[in-house]
Amino acid sequence: MRSYAPGGYHAGMRMWVRPFGLILAAVAAACGTGCARSPAAPSPVSLSVRLEAPGVLTGSTMTATATALTSAGAYSTVVPSWTSDRPEIATVSSAGVVAGVSPGSATILASYQGLSASATVTVTLNVTGSWQGTAQLESCDGFGNSRTCGRIAPPGTAAHISLTLTQDGPAVRGSLDLQTVPPPQLGPPVYAVRYVGELSGTVDSAGVLTLDGPTRRLPAPDLSVDAGEIRHWSTRVADGVQAGTFAQAFPDSPYTPVFTGFIRWTGVSLRRQEERAAMRLRGSPRRLPGARKIDPTPIFRSIFRPVVRPDPDFSDPDFQRASRSRIRCAAVTRAGTGMFRLASMTMPSLRVGTNAA
């Protein structure tokens, strides 16, 4: 029989447990300094907003971005909540797309994790495009030769105006084409004169367009000479229409830079052509005033008539041997805005069996 010393088995266990506890304590002490938990992600400490451009035109868009500075000193792009303090001037979507609504200034605000930042956007009236319209003569005076106004701009003269504008913010550039329309009258001939020029100016927050620039006179399609300049073009732009006044200043002679002759125009009324085209595309003949829905079947039956020219002799053996005949069709279709003629449409695959009326 085996015998154990006092304390025998349990004493042996204590001899093993004590060194193992010492090892665990050493490992825990070592992990206290070198085995700490991973640090938390850096938190944002400041926020900034950047606009794609300082301003935007009405009807156009641009992008706003938000950048956060973290506690680790790094910058990162974030997705904040976007708002506009004046949505009637400019709106902003949840993706940061800023859209110009009407002229003025608005503040775009970004909020992210308790931080906020903002930027100011200026909205300018969009006047780009092709404008066409008329103006009326107000006065013509100051010319050394009194017959000049009578020959070029007598009372009752009008003007056809075509103006093409480009824009960079409030700065505007334009190409002008002006042709006088003299009134019908008896007596000495009155000349229709055409002027072209390159203008520049600005459009302000109130929608007033101002332009100036030199012009050239076109006495012939391939010949132009310097002829004064456009001064004080001032039109108010609203709802796709320009309305206002301007003047033309002319020197005494090509060798004298002193401007003494003036033609003043009033009643300027120009309309943006793109908007008129868009209105026609959006419209429907059935929605036009006085329009009524019609059945086009009788019209097509009456206007699509095959006509054989010259009238053939169906008893002619040569005609009988012809397996195909080219038939001309004169077709006229009527649309809401005019007539369209389809001329000389050939149909070689049809066999002619009888003469069409």
Description:
The structure is a single chain. This protein is α+β, with helices and mostly antiparallel strands. It has 5 helices and 20 strands. The protein has helices spanning 8-34, 147-152, 273-282, 297-303, 317-321; strands at residues 44-51, 55-57, 61-70, 75-78, 81-84, 90-92, 97-100, 104-112, 115-124, 129-141, 158-168, 171-181, 194-203, 208-220, 223-238, 241-253, 256-272, 305-307, 328-335, 338-346. An 8-stranded antiparallel beta barrel has the order 10-11-12-13-14-15-16-17. Strands 1, 3, 4, 6 and 7 form a 5-stranded antiparallel β-sheet that branches. It has a 4-stranded mixed β-sheet with strand order 2-9-8-5, with no helix packed on it. The model is unreliable at 276-289, 306-310 and 322-357 (pLDDT under 50).
